[in-house]
Design brief:
Distance between the termini: 27 Å
Structural class: alpha/beta
Helix content: 25-40%
CATH architecture: 3-Layer(aba) Sandwich
Radius of gyration: 17 Å
Strand content: 15-25%
Number of strands: 8
Strand order of the largest sheet: 2-1-3-8-7-4-5-6
Bound molecules: manganese (II) ion
CATH class: Alpha Beta
Length: 296
């Protein structure tokens, strides 16, 4: 094996040395002021980058993409405004706007709204694949308009996503019936964690492909979609979630869609155990890259 040993790989995502935008560009968003339970996702980008060093020892074992030959840059972290959610959303949107194909490392889920605002301006309304324990379609968070639980309410009402081309997978948290009904009423396909467990990844991937169709598609991966046994390091854990392998298998079944960007959010390293949450998040971003950069 060439290159430095795993523990000495540079602490960028997948150890990339490129800092200028490339075909695929990684950026961190160290922000968590909109979290409604345990804070700490501001430390997510650093932990995900560190854990990603485990993934550069060879090629992806099914897509046969090699991190060393990937057209990948890590441009560091986007600026944020301390404690100011609207100002941070504006700063993220400005920073994301010129990046052609962004892979964002959160940060809490609220940052996705700014990323969708930046991207939808170029692509028009997006199809959305959302791995999550929570629908995140609350109109606000405890009176705060922009929180990590209201991101997709605003994405829908602002016309950034096409609800009939939007799938949520892994849903299982407590939720007000009116929020649930509003989400379904918009045309969103909601797949509970139980539905994923009972159907299996191949059937779920087929269903997602059918809903997304040929529209430009965005992947938003909230790490709390995974069961706390696989991802304890997050602010709002819910039991009964997806196993890492299920999420991996579903993602591997989503090649050929018109992917336009992704984020992985809600990694809060302070609650993590042996870096398993950060490694799961890094691996999901890597699975996405293998999906978009791999052979068709
Ligand atoms: Mn979420």
């Amino acid at each position: 094996m060439a290159g430095p040993p795993t523990f000495a790989v540079p602490p960028t995502f997948l150890g990339t040395a490129r800092r200028d935008p490339a075909a695929f560009t990684v950026a961190g968003i160290p922000f968590d002021a909109g979290t409604t339970n345990r804070a700490g996702a501001r430390d997510g980008p650093h932990a995900i980058r560190r854990a990603s060093r485990m993934l550069v020892d060879g090629a992806h074992p099914t897509a046969w993409v090699d991190p060393a030959t990937l057209d990948l840059a890590d441009i560091g972290d986007f600026p944020v405004a301390l404690g100011d959610i609207p100002a941070t959303l504006a700063a993220i949107e400005r920073a994301a706007a010129p990046v052609p194909h962004l892979i964002a490392l959160g940060g809490e889920h609220g940052v996705t709204l700014a990323l969708l605002r930046a991207l939808a301006r170029r692509t028009g309304p997006l199809a959305l694949v959302q791995f999550d324990a929570h629908v995140d379609t609350w109109p606000d968070g405890f009176g705060q308009k922009f929180s990590h639980g209201s991101v997709f309410h605003h994405a829908i009402t602002e016309g950034l996503v096409e609800p009939c081309r939007m799938v949520q997978l892994g849903i299982r948290s407590p939720v007000q019936r009116e929020v649930w009904d509003w989400t379904l009423g918009q045309g969103v396909t909601v797949l509970t964690a139980q539905a994923v467990h009972e159907s299996g990844p191949a059937a779920i991937a087929a269903l997602v492909r059918e809903v997304v169709g040929h529209a430009p598609a965005y992947l938003s991966f909230d790490i709390d979609a995974l069961d706390p046994a696989f991802a304890p390091g997050t602010g709002t854990p819910e039991i009964g979630g997806l196993a890492s392998w299920q999420a991996q298998a579903i993602l591997r079944g989503l090649c050929g869609l018109a992917w336009a960007g992704m984020d992985v959010v809600e990694v809060a390293p302070a609650y993590d155990v042996a870096e398993i949450t950060a490694l799961a998040a890094a691996t999901m971003a890597w699975e996405y890259l293998a999906l978009v950069a791999g052979p068709r």
